[in-house]
Specification:
- By secondary structure, the chain is of the alpha/beta class.
- It folds into 3 domains: 2-124; 133-260, no CATH class; 268-457, Rossmann fold (3-Layer(aba) Sandwich).
- It contains 12 helices and 22 strands.
- The protein has helices spanning 28-32, 61-81, 95-105, 188-208, 223-231, 235-238, 284-295, 314-321, 368-375, 392-400, 414-429, 434-449; strands spanning 2-3, 12-19, 39-45, 87-92, 111-116, 123-124, 133-135, 148-154, 170-177, 215-220, 241-246, 254-260, 268-273, 302-306, 325-329, 332-333, 342-343, 353-357, 363-367, 383-387, 404-408, 455-457.
- A 6-stranded mixed beta sheet has the order 1-3-2-4-5-6. A 6-stranded mixed beta sheet has the order 7-9-8-10-11-12.
- Strand 4, helix 3 and strand 5 (111-116) form a beta-alpha-beta unit.
- Helix 7 (284-295) runs parallel beside helix 11.
- The longest helix has 21 residues, at 61-81.
- The protein is elongated and about 75 Å long.
Amino acid sequence: MDEMKSNTTRPGAILLVHQGTTDPDFTIEELRRGDVPKDIEIVRITPDRRRLEDYDETYDWEYAAARQQKQFDELRTAQRCHPNWPIIYFGLVPIPLAIHLGWLVGSCSRVSTRVRHHQTFEWGWPGGPEPSIQSAPLASGDPRFEGDLVIRVSTAARIDPGDTQVDPQIRESDIALAQPALDAIVSEKVLNDVAATFTNTLMEMSTRFPQARIRHLFAAVPTGLAFRMGTCLNTTHMGAIQTWQYNGSSARRYHRAIALGRYRSAPTLLILAAAPHNAARISAVAEVQELHRQLEVKPNIRLIERPATAAARVLDELSSADPTFLHIAGHGRGTSSAGGRELVVDGDSSEGGLFFLNSEGEGHLMTNSDFIALTRDLRRLRCVVLTTCHSAELAKELDASGKLAIGFVGPLNDTAGRDFAQTFWRYAVEGRTFRRACELAEIQIRAQHQITLEYWHSDSDKKLFYD
């Protein structure tokens, strides 16, 4: 916190400065031009990235939310010191971070917002005629609908509905200005009116479709409006909210960002990958990215991806995710370097294992027995897929512990292993039985690569997602 004065008997304000996409830091002089009281206290919340292009589909939004939650404690400290002071928000961050911070602040605090003009770079309000707000009526439907809801808010630019089709089974609604533009929010009244329309629409959606699983929020708005919308969210009454980040350079314009509230009964797939730089090059990271693109649009699964997993982090990742399904892509312990996904190590090779990363980015062996021990307390874990060499024995041990598992015998062809994983998860998520998803993946590999993979899998006709 940048302390100015702490005399709570005089009028003042807490300036909540949320900066993560520009340099240098906003100065006190710059903020004062945004019409603030004389007595102020500044609380700065800073994301770990400063370039918009860093917030791509590989960015760890869960970490970003946890970091922001920790920094948020500084605001609570300032509010205890100045309980009668309002919060004035100055923000220039990705939209999901602004929504998340607004959600943390909530509707109980007195909050006003400043928006930065795109041409003058000044904080304040340009003034002028108030634009009209258009809200498309929500289509009627079966109140027992259990799919997902989509809401689009367009004030800075109009969002193309074709870019927001998260799944065919959705109900959707649009809020937009008649003529969206970067500086179309000409006053705080207009900003609050848009936020109120957003709140009313969400409440209507929740009332009309009470069994809907999650609300997907796509917003092309100024950062200040995103923050204000966040303060209006009550996930207890409105349901869980999934925010999305825009990426104009990607073929898929939006990717999942921060989730607010709890998904209703959505199982979690944790993907751990490692490609040590002291081993033969493999496509483990590409495997994670392809699974992400394939599965992120599915409403009945929550994805957590770790494309460069350190051995020291495996326990923490398993404990925090508490996954329903676990997929591991990388190297397995082998005795030669003939190709595929095996890594040669010195010493005794009597026990197999999986390779993760050490602090230098090299392979660090986790033995099968250690891995089994780590998964023993994961009560929700139902299925483990191992696209690594020499993983069949580990799969059998996992099966003996009551978990469905897939592992490969001997060396694993790199691209075939990746394609097997894609096909298996595609059909498993669509509701095929475990055995049938394995069969279809095997058939696809023979058709695509003209090879037969030697692997072992549990004998089960359970449907992973619907049983």
